[in-house]
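Bumping my old thread because nobody answered last time. Still need a sequence for this structure:
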């Protein structure tokens, strides 16, 4: 079994194994929302943000024909300043997590179409989507002004919800790889 982990850093990050809520992590589920109680990390002395959701997108080869793409939040690395706890703020953080799920599904979608992918091809596909993912997270924060622009926040939420529905068939973490005898 080969294991690959890719962690991206900025105001939001990614990590998971499997399962949904196990101790320090929460893996994305459609009907499970984040709460401020999930944010257990230490608040940094200096930060431009009032909260940080630490998310990990990860891929793992389960069998020669199956790969798992997971999207999880680490509780002990996610934090919120007490004065920033609001329903608007937690919803903004939830949508960072939802954006990560969109990109996990896009990775699953592409991998489901590749025939006989090598590990290096899988990594290239994964890394390519991670670059796009990072750009999308930055754009989300920029356009919503970190949730302070209510109109833009609402637009983004509708866009994200629509994308999740459109990619619903790729919600399963496990991707069956297409293998054709050579």
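Sorry it took so long. Here it is:
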């Amino acid at each position: 079994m080969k294991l690959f982990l890719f962690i991206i850093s900025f105001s939001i990050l990614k990590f998971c194994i499997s399962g949904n809520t196990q101790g320090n992590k929460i893996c994305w589920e459609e009907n499970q929302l984040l709460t401020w109680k999930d944010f257990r990390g230490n608040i940094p002395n200096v930060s431009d943000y009032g909260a940080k959701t630490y998310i990990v997108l990860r891929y793992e080869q389960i069998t020669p024909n199956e790969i798992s793409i997971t999207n999880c939040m680490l509780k002990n690395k996610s934090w919120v300043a007490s004065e920033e706890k609001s329903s608007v703020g937690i919803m903004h953080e939830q949508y960072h997590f939802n954006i990560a799920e969109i990109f996990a599904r896009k990775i699953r979608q592409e991998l489901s179409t590749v025939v006989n992918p090598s590990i290096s091809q899988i990594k290239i596909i994964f890394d390519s989507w991670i670059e796009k993912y990072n750009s999308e997270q930055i754009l989300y924060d920029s356009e919503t002004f970190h949730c302070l622009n209510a109109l833009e926040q609402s637009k983004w939420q509708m866009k994200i919800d629509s994308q999740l529905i459109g990619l619903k068939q790729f919600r399963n973490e496990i991707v069956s790889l297409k293998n054709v005898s050579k």
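The helical segments are 87-111, 119-144, 150-166. Let me know if any region looks off to you.
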